Amino acid sequence: MEIIWTEESLNSYLKIIDYLFERWSAKEIIELEIQVETLLKNLIQFQTFCPVSKLTPYRKCVLNPHTSLIYLINNHQIILITFLHNKSAHNY
Question: Which three-class secondary structure state does DSSP give residue 52?
Answer without folding.
Answer: strand
